[in-house]
Amino acid sequence: MQTMIGVIGGSGVYQIDGLEGASWVRVNSPFGKPSDEILVGRLEGVPMAFLPRHGRGHVHSPASVPYRANIDALKRLGCTDLVAVSAVGSLRQDFAPGDFVIVDQYIDRTVSREASFFGPGCVAHVSLADPTCPRLGAACAQAAREGGLTVHTGAVYLAMEGPQFSTRAESRLYQSWGADVIGMTGMPEARLAREAELCYASVAMVTDYDCWHDTHGAVDVAMVIKTLAANSANARGLVARLPAQLGRTHAPCPHGCDHALDHAIMTAPDHRDPALLARLDAIAARVL
Question: Active site residue: 210, 220, 262, 270, which one?
Answer without folding.
Answer: 210
